[in-house]
Amino acid sequence: VYLPTITFVVSRANLGLKPVILLVIYNIMFILPLIIIAVVAGIISRENVAIVLSKRIPIIKLLTAILFFAMGILLFLA
Fold first, then answer.
1. pTM for the whole thing?
2. Average pLDDT for 30-37
């Protein structure tokens, strides 16, 4: 799905490599949290991770809300 879309965007607009760079950034940001969780889960026992995360659920939800709010503002400004 990505390759035909990028090929189309690159051929139609004079954007150069910008779509490819944005795709790489998107994929890194999508995969990075999964890698971090896997490494942490491999180092620390599952019970300890569950305890730590359950104690910090309100902070995690607040930070997630702030992140999505900031991304929404960036979408409106762009």
1. 0.43
2. 89
